[in-house]
Amino acid sequence: MTILRSLAKIVAIFLFITLSSTNGNQLLAQDGKALFSQNCASCHAVNKKLTGPALAGVEDRWSEKKNLYAWIKNSAAFLKTGDPYANKLYNEYNKTAMNLFPSLTEKDIDAILVYIKSVPAAGAAPAGGAAGAAAPAEESDSTLVFGLLTLILAVVSVILLQVNSNLKKLSDDKSGIPSTEPVPFYRNKAYIAFIAIILFIVGGYMTTVGAMNLGRSKDYQPEQPIYYSHKVHAGVNQINCQYCHTGVYQGKQATLPSVNVCMNCHLAINEYKGEALKRENGDVVDGTAEIKKLYKYAGFTEGQAWDASKAKPIEWVRIHNLPDHVYFNHAQHVNAGQVACQQCHGEIQKMGEVKQFTDLSMGWCINCHRQTQVQFKDNGFYSIYEKFHADLKSGKIDSTKGITVEKIGGTECQKCHY
Amino acid sequence: MEQKKNWQSFGELNKSEAYNKEVENEFKEDLPMVEDHSGLLNAKAPRRDFLKFLGFSTAAAAVAASCEMPIKKAIPFANRPEDIVPGNANYYATTYVQDGDVVSVIAKVRDGRPIKLEGNDLSPITGGGTSARVQASVLDLYDTARLRFPTIAGKEATFEAIDSAIGGELNSNAVIVTSTITSPSTKAVIAQFLAKYPGSKHVTYDAVSYSGMILANEASYGKRALPSYHFEKAKAIVSLSADFLGTWLSPVEFARQYAAGKKIDEKNPAMSKHIHFETVASMTGSNADEKYLCRPSEMGAIALGILNAVKGKEITGVDEKLKSAISAAAHALIANQGAALVVAGSNDVNVQILVNAINDAVGANGTTINFGVAANYRQGIDSEFAALVDDMNAGKVNAVLFHGANPVYTWPAADKLKSGLAKVKTTISFSGKLDETTAVCKFVIPDHHFLESWGDAEPITGHISFIQPTISPLFKTRAFQDSLLKWSGASADYLAFLKSFWSAKLGGEAGWNKAIQDGVINPSLANVAGASVNGAAVANAIAAVSAKKPSTKIELALYQKVGIGSGQGASNPWLQELPDPVTRATWDNYIIVSPAMAKTLLNIDLNNPGQADAYEVQPPKKVVRLTSGKTVIELPVLIIPGTHPNTIGIALGYGRTEAIGKAVVGTGKNAFPLSSFNGQTVVLDNADIKLELTGETYPVALTQTHFRYDTTQGNRTEIMKELTLAEYKHSPKEIIEERANEYRGQIMGGEKMSDEEVVANFAKDATIYPVYDRPGIKWGMSVDLNSCNGCGACVVACNAENNVSIVGKPEVLRGHEMHWLRIDKYYSGDLENPNVVFQPLMCQHCDNAPCENVCPVAATNHSSEGLNQMTYNRCIGTRYCANNCPFKVRRFNWADYSGADSFPDNQEGIVNDVVLNMSDDLTRMVLNPDVTVRSRGVIEKCSFCVQRLQAAKLDAKKDSRPMVDSDIKVACQQACPTNAINFGNANDKHSAITKVRVENPNRSFYVLEQLHVLPNVTYLAKVRNAEEHAEKAEAAHKA
Fold this sequence. Notes:
The complex is a heterodimer of chains A (418) and B (1039). By secondary structure, chain A is mainly α. Chain A has helices at 2-28, 32-40, 58-61, 65-73, 75-80, 84-92, 106-118, 143-175, 189-213, 230-236, 241-244, 259-266, 287-298, 330-336, 341-345, 362-371, 386-394, and strands at 277-278, 284-285, 316-317. A two-stranded antiparallel ribbon of chain A has the order 1-2. Among the domains of chain B are: 6-14 and 708-1024, Alpha-Beta Plaits; 223-376 and 531-536, Dimethylsulfoxide Reductase, domain 2; 553-702, Barwin-like endoglucanases, CATH 2.40.40. In chain B, the strands form 13 sheets. In chain B, strands 7-6-18-17-16-8-9 form a 7-stranded mixed sheet, with helices on both faces. A 7-stranded mixed sheet of chain B has the order 30-22-27-24-26-25-31. In chain B, strands 13-12-11-14 form a 4-stranded parallel sheet. In chain B, helix 7 (211-221) crosses helix 12 and helix 12 packs across helix 19 (535-547). Chain B is globular.
């Protein structure tokens, strides 16, 4: 039964992975809101003055849209043109230079402007975050039903066996065969052997499973020093994962953001006004109070200038732990392999406090390495595998299966253990 | 051709019984099992015990494992510095400086900790080469014996308290005693200080001085300096016992230059010729093409002989043997007029004047020797320090400041120095450790380690190398320069001083930043200049040398070891455990004697198998008492072929004070008291000695005979191939021929194949196994035995890169050393004066590896890239793999050397203090976080630095481009000063490794190729430019 259950789980995991990877792609879709969150939100709000002015009605304040584009892309250069409005703004905001955004296209800026328009004026409560996409298929837990059935059948078979032996005894008596003294079932060697074997199998199975699970911590969800919700940041506000986890493309560790990264936004955002936050057990969390906790670490007093050197690091509880003899590199997976965060971390954009999504077992790693294709055609590194390229062309290698990580040695010991 | 016989040990030379028995066993001692033939049930550990143990261990494991998982914290920076990505290494250019030794390096800094030093390719002096001492210096940073705060009379004090106390005491007649300072800015700082206190001076004192050379250059050329050398331009090199590849002046630089002359172009074979006059076997002598033995006291006569010979005069004053040697040397020098070079290790001014005269006569000045550009490596003049000692005793000195120098340990008349110091009111030491001199100083202001410092160095005039800190000071230490600046009343600190010193010269901030980033500034053109010799000085030197008769008694020559030097490396466990290239001994110094003297002194006749075995098989060696005047020292004796029959050698740098670290406890005796000051220079030879057997023995941890294992299929002595240049020129295909003849029979249809075809097809045709594809990458290594000089930089680099454990002397004695890479030393020829070849041997990553198919748990297996993978977490420690490895390159963790186990019982009482100290929290900061720290009970071995390979591939993937050679250098390759090691992707037609293999078909060979294990390491045979073999070869071929 448990086997069936884990089968169901595996199916569910696959469903989950497929679903979440499509979700990951959706995340990349660049709409105005996401662009705003990524580029503008650290200094601007729509209806509130922060480091920079409130952006509601920004289009109307600029004489020409062309100038607005130029200002956003390269404010320093535009200032030099001597535009009076730009200079007025600059002086009004204590000569704080606006960041340069040479990479934003006019289309992007339009998208942002559309988004700004779509935000209702201050006071009107924003609509609740988009409800999550279709929830993953609920696994149907039929353990209880099967268990009850087994128990009933077992009782029935015991009764039948008892009846059978009684009948046999009766018939023996009838035909005059001298019957032996009946042995009670608890001294019957067949019963004892049977039970011993069952116990051995069940016990052995449980010990093995238990032993394999030692050191694994799937679903680990410790309480953190600050209730930080990925749902609010990555989900509702669409902040790119890399904004905080800066190392994820560059190196081994994804890295946790330092306090100054938090303060980039939270210098301005000092209260939580979104949908009520709830822990798994239903306790309501006061978002604003959690932001104040951050201020305490940052050594920031509201209304005063922040001295970054006063900040103290936040001691987060580490959730994803790999043993020391495993080498894991985020850049390898996220940068070179183009794997979405959700593949391993689950639907992080829907999590309140983070919960470990997978068991991080070696079997789980290996399975993925067997099935996942490398960026064989897109990454120039793989050009050296001339034979595989030729085989792909000639059809010797099934192009739908492609070149998996395993095919180029990704399941060998010294890819992760050294 | 004549079959050359190579040997590593005397037993092997004699084919002794004990030797034959020993090589049958894989491990030196018996396995820790009780042999019991009384049957299973009656055995001492019967079934019940087995079940008890099984039950207990299962229960223990369950209890241990079911403990709650520890809660781990993930703590990010409060404010992350812009250029630091946690988990990624940063590289900073800096400079290794130690007593005048200067090597430009790049420090790998991981999460704020420097963990590895690599040579700086931008330096034309070292070209990215390093030495064992450079590689090991990063461990000194994390030495637990470093001084952690300044002291006054042994009590902790603040810098302010010290400054005010010293401010009150310093007035005039202060003397700064330093080892050689190559830093121009430090010299400026010292000048400022001296100007402030009248009557003060700066005395440079070198533990092993080159005063003789400096004074000789003054006499010959009027220049009180050392010239820069160009060994790469020399076609004939004659060395009078100068160990220029190991310890003489600037060995990293010279090794690189020397190797350039030894590289062989197979199409046009030519190489330099190196003739060496040797007193005690040395590393440089071992590499020489021709080597002649002489006494230290004969050096003058030899120099005079060569001078006479090159001038066409008669050679006098030496015996016949030396006469022919001298004429051979002179012959080579004359034949290469203008491309010849003579160097001498002697500290005798007259000998060096004669050497100058020879160099002048053979046109070395302006070609191989450049007096236009001075080398600043050593500047000390012994007589100046001797005068200072007299001044101190006369009470003329008010204050002494010691920086870098440790004369209480190294000065021949240490007692006189100590009594002098007692008369000096203010004694200040800037040493980072409580060394012998610091222990007698009143004020101790520990200096930073060089990896914590700012600074500069000018090893050769015009070449600047910068020092920048790679970590904040770990302890309350202060730069020597900062102290001096403070005491001379300057307001700026040393960093500001340094910056303004250089910014002006480098064109402002930008120039300074560029210089710090590159680490070096190189002059645009080498300024080569000649010099003319002062004839009168030569005449005086000839008279002085002729008047001195060579000794007829036994003489002592003091020498330095590659790792320990004059004592700088003594407290470093990596260097202590590095087998000395010459003796292959670790953790001790000893008396080196020749096989001939062994017979008379020790009653050991090495030609008598029984006596040779008695000496060789057991570690305890006979102890000899050496008496010289009032100095008596007792040391064990090692017999090292290649030593003059009447000369003995003792290494300097041992017998240090225990305060400088656990590694020096019980290691060797101080030999400096056996040196003497002759009124002009310090002399490291001693002809007034008496030797007598004490009847005692002392164990020496010798590794020469470790990891020997011969099988019927392969004898380890065959794995080294050596031939002479003449032989090679005569028959370049000799090695291919040899290989082909051996394998032809193993290949179907081999009789019809040419030699080249046999060699090329051996891999796939001589087996019934399938040949596996290696798509993409196939890693390969090549080692050029002609370039390798055995210096051991690679061994220490491997230690640092791969977290290789130190095991301590008791464990080395049992053959348990863990080095992944060892340098085997092979002898051939005459027992008294044999040829020597060094062969670095690491895991060969065999494609048909014998170790892989015997592992019961598949903990070692092959990768698609040709790596023989070792998976520690899967290993259960059967050691079958080590048993089946024909090269004996697998190492077993017999105890918990690394502290990786959580059970203290696996360390305490098993490993010694040095090893325990390696798992101290401070020492562990040196560990490479990308490499697993192995625990007890697992096998480990060379991984081809797989962590670097993976990183190189990832870098290429991140840039979406194919991997290129420059992405990857394995640790041993990077460290090598002579580029003897090449590594790369053998599938890549443009890679260096492919090029080496294609360009050197005639010299390439695989070790134990006949076993068909298919190694991925190719070796290039050693070619020796030696006369006698050439003649013999020709005669053999004519016959």
